[in-house]
Every structure is written in structure tokens, then in C-alpha cells.
Amino acid sequence: MTVLRPFTAADKDWLVERHQTLYREAEGFDDTFGPLVAEILTAFLADHDPARERGWIAAEGDTRLGSIFCVAAGPDRPSTAKLRLFLLEPASRGKGLGKRLLGTCMEFARSSGYADMVLWTHESHRAACALYAGAGWELVDSKPVRSFGVDMVEQSWRIDL
Fold first, then answer.
1. Which helix (H) or strand (E) holds 60?
2. Which of 13, 45, 83, 88 sees the fewest Cβ atoms within 10 Å?
3. Pairing relation of β-strands 54-60 and 138-147?
4. Rounded Cα–Cα distance for residues 32 and 122 (Å)
5. What is the DSSP pairing of strand 63-72 with strand 80-88?
6. Could you report the per-residue pLDDT of 15-42, keeping only the tens digit for each?
7. Apex CA 158: angle with CA 2 and CA 8, to 5°?
8. What CATH number does the domain containing 60 carry?
9. Are 108 and 71 within 8 A, CB to CB?
10. How crowded is residue 48: how many other Cβ atoms within 10 Å of its Cβ?
């Protein structure tokens, strides 16, 4: 049975490695991506507000299958949550786990008092983008960029909670 449990410091190295490996294999990302994920997780572990920010790990027993995080968008946007680090192992995709993670994250944001939620992704993540659209998210910006050593189209999405 798959459970969604809280992210802990013991999950950090796994999550950094899986982001680096999966994005390198699927998207051709260079070695700058893993350190960015590590920086995000280090900051989360050091300074997150547990009442308004949370990370989840999807797991079956000791096997981690994915992650998702809800964090504050920043001090200039106190009513906005940001979805971060949404990841599913390839073998776990297409089974409803992504939808479950997304729903859990959004419900936490709602119950924590956020008015809306935002996320950043890129258009090559077609399945994730379809999941966002199906849950009522709106694509608000799309632009070509060069990040992590590759040309891509980054996207910004938002939803009213």
C-alpha cells in the first residue's frame, strides 16, 4: 500500500539524486540541477513553517516513489503557496499517485489559509501539465529559456484555492 508520509532530513539525499538522475535522463539537464534541489531542501529543512509548509514522500514500505511540497511563495505574497519538487518515479506514473499527491498538497494549502497557489515547470512535462489543467490550474505564462544546459519552454501556473 502506498502511503504519503512527511518528508524528513533522511529523504534529502535520495530526493536530490532522483531529481538529478531523472531530469538528466529525460530532459538532458546538466549537473547544475541537483545542487539547486539540494539548496531548496536545505532551506526547507532549516527554516520552514510547519503550520504552513510541508513536504510529502510517497512510499511503499521502504521504497520511495515520489514527492511534493507546499511552501510559502515569499514574504511579499503571504496568501500564496508554491508547489515545489513534484516528482514521481517512472514506474509509479499513470496509476493515480500523481493526482493523489497533487490533491494532498492543494488541500493542505487550502486548509493552511492560502488564497492561491503557483508553480513553475516546463512544457515538456506534458503529463504533469495535463494533471494541473485537469485540477483547475491555469497556465499564466510561457516563455523560451535556457536552463540547466538545455533550451526549454518554462511555464508558470496558478490556481485560486
1. strand 54-60
2. 13
3. unpaired
4. 17
5. antiparallel
6. 999 999 999 999 999 999 999 999 999 9
7. 35
8. 3.40.630.30
9. no
10. 17
